[in-house]
Please model this.
Amino acid sequence: MAADVLGIIGFAVGVVALLLAVTVTRRIGQRDPLNVPHFWRRALVIRPPAMDSTDEPLGALTRNQRLAFIANPTKAGVSHVREQAMRACAIRYLPQPMWFYTTEDDPGTGQARQALEQGADVVVAVGGDGTVRAVAEVMANSDRIMGILPMGTGNLFARNLDVPLNDIPSALRTVIEGEDRAVDVGWIDIERAHPSHGENGTHIFLVIAGVGLDAEMVAGADDRLKRRLGWFAYFFAAAAHMRGKRMGATVTVDDAKPVKSEMRTVLMANVGRLPGGIQLIPDASVSDGKLDVATLDARGGIVGWTELFGTVIAQGAGITEPWLPRLLRTSRIDHVRGKEIVVDLASPQKIQIDGESAGRAGKIRGRVDHGALTVRVPPKPAEKPDKASKASASDPADVPEDGNHEI
Ligand SMILES: [Mg+2]
Model:
């Protein structure tokens, strides 16, 4: 008798467990079909939700776009990202994306060109700022869209466009379902002072191109330190160049009169936000059709440097009038906005483009290419009416005009 009761209870528990397992498997399968083996998908009649569901806006994915990913294979975890990308496309019934790897000889331009030739609608750079720049060089002035899966140390361009960092699933969602935004890019013409310094050429920059100390810092930053500390490694590198000579340069912005002066560095910025909440160039906008030019100068050894870095950090904190004592006026930042900047150097100086060394130059010319690149970015939060009305209800003066939001 007792054995019969136990048997019945056991059977009931078994049936419940089986039903539970089927329900859970079906639910998982509907959300992400690739998580359930093909046999079980067929046996349990698992079908993903209908495409024409009106409850959830499908956004960009209804365009049936063809994606291409251009990945830097040296980044850790890139094969896992590939799986995630394939799955993200599969569950949205998008065509299987193309996948290219960059090489040492070709950091992404050749692959991006190939992707466009093969009909990619969205070309996604998977890597750091170097890969992003190489892909952008091809995508600028094309009629196609660029996406970013940030996997670098700085990820400066992605950061400035609010692309999710350290969160591949969110970045993938942005790439597939985000909004398209036209942004400016910069081009820099490099004129070498001497043939042994390399070839003349034109390069794209998305973040900041700089000459002088800024480039010395980039060249001097230790790779291991860079991996560990990110952008702050550059500040450590700066220490090694504090006693260096200042450089003489003639700077011409648009049609203004050329200015001849001595300085530490000239920066041309397409964006202004750097890691750690630091804004080297406040208010720089990525879509205003202008580059922000800053010349930085510091004298008097360590005092001047401390003040200069203090000024940069103060600007990041929104303090335009630096709090440091004005008695020792040893550093200054001059800031101007323009479409074209020519820097004629008295002696050849190191150049950096988006954090990569580009050798020495005798003369550089930077110019903005307004709205040349269309990038897929996260949808604006204004879509949520509750939040938007709350924000406008509070003091509108609190909201900065552009680029000054918290990271
Ligand atoms: Mg700008």
Remarks:
- The first helix runs from residue 2 to 31.
- Residues 64-177 form a domain with the Rossmann fold fold (CATH 3.40.50.10330).
- The chain is about 30% helix and 30% strand.
- Residues 50-62, 322-328, 386-407 have pLDDT under 50 and may be disordered.
